[in-house]
Batch of 2 targets.
Target 1
Amino acid sequence: MLNVTLKQMRYIEAAGRLGSIANAAKELSISQSSISAAIDALEVHLKYDLFIRTPAKGIHATPSGRDAIQTIREFLDQLRHFETELVSIGGEASGTIRIACFVTAVGSFVPPILHRFQKSNPKIEIQLLEETLEGVVDLLDEGKADMAFTYSDVVGSTHVFDPLIEVPPYALVARNSPLARQSDVSLAELADYPMVLFDLPRTKGYYVRFMTDAGHKVRVSHHTQSVEMVRTLVANGFGFSILNARPPEYLEGKSNYRTLPIRDKLTPRVFGILRQAGVRQPLVVRRFTELCNHLKDRRTFESMIVGHTNSTSVHAKN
């Protein structure tokens, strides 16, 4: 029979996640010897090494150790949800929801949800984990996030995707650009200007293809992995850009750029909730998902769309 305590499992998970006994001890406010003792005890019981210890370089999980640590992490995650639901029975819901979110949509999409959810669930803490498209999936698959806000591009065979809104691409131009005087813009008109390219993995090709598929050459003036820098560079006249999620409303009247719908017929991206298939969500996560679907039905998320105020939110179509 395996003789390992919850404390020891938490020690081992932290060491594996941080790749350092010293950092794990610091995070958990315990001694390094306690971490080492927990690792040694489990290795004795399992009869294989969890880590390779390299002086001055920390620790590295063995292949079997990686699998064991992932199993421990999943168990601790389920335990966290179990404790949350047990405490919530007969009382006010409490606990933590960890949400992975694609970086471009955080400012546009998340605030209205958080305002409404935390107003009625003040004891629930929300942890937002901003990431790239691949990073969002990794956080979900590794059990570091309960759910994710992202585009349908990344849905895999082990996932379930709940669509919330179709978001067509739009153009971002400087407010003093001749294009800014128009109500919309074509790809041909944009091709006369250099492009500020939002250059995260899987986004670079996506935005450039709109231009190249239409037969236009692309002159990239700047590459950046920050959506805020995209807006700054565009506002300062370095070129146009193409994005999907509308900037937060409060920026619209205070920035030296304009957002314009693109006249060409372009395929929109579908934005929604990504979660693990076959995993029963805890009560607090189910409540959060229900609110998202309620807001979808009320067309709340259409503020993300540039120039399509009469557009209809997507409904379930997995």
Target 2
Amino acid sequence: MNYFSILYIVIFLSVLLLGIWIYSEKNLKGKYNKLINYLSFPLALLGLYSVFRLNIDFSYVLVSLIIASLFLWILGRSTSLKKLAKESRSFFIILSLITIFRSFIFEPFQIPSESMIPGLEIGDFVLVNKYEYGLKNPIGNQTLISNKSPDRGDVIVFTPPHTKCNSEIIKSYPKDSLQTISRDIEKSWGELKKSCSSLGLKYVKRVIGIPGDVLEIKGKDFLVNGIKVVKSILNSNSRETFYEESFGKENYLIRKSKLRELSFYQSWKIPEGFYFVMGDNRDNSLDSRSWGLVPENNITGKAQLIWLSWSSYGSFPSFGRNKIIK
């Protein structure tokens, strides 16, 4: 049984329990309501677990719950079930406020990989500024009101095209962005798409190239519009080297491994509406070097603040890494 089947069963049982609850409340003076409440709690947890495993964007879940609570509010008023109307109205208001905050102001995001070490580590919870690049529709991520565009050095959260099952390679490699799209690139992109989902997966990386840039990658160095990006060594040992990378007014830390060194030789012309991104852990990051460019419409927002760090379920959450993201 797959997780979609489990989710459908959860929805069916939830509707069934709701019907029993309404019958109990109207005809049996709430005789079975306490039992129904006990059954509803594990059912809700199972539903949330299925949503998590299916990688469904939580915006869709929130909007669905708002519609459901509005329906129950209307149902409660029309059937004179004051308890149902009161509780569903409370849920509707609370969920609406959460959705507005999450969709238009800040959205939480947990760092899933090592690709942004040393700045961001696995288990860091970050707040993503949703209004930095404009107000977006909570369903579909379409921009409603434009603001400024991402700049070089920004750390952004986005959905790479290759993680969406219905996406085509042109979404990552638009016309004239590369001189040629080789069979190796097409094969690599196809292999990465095997782990796709219908809504895609969210990544976090740093913007390196913006629309209009000509970006050249030569081994471990890169040039933007013919100017080599400056790197200064801060610390080095037998396993790794840490640099400070300077990008205009932006300075941030990057890591390069001495155990797994990746080298690329490519030249990109970044077209309008696309961005080139890389992980700060340069030798351990799947990014634009591997799967192409990020369309502007796929950008969720700017990662702005680490507010919690929880590296594993076997450890305690910590506020020791709270900081503004550079």
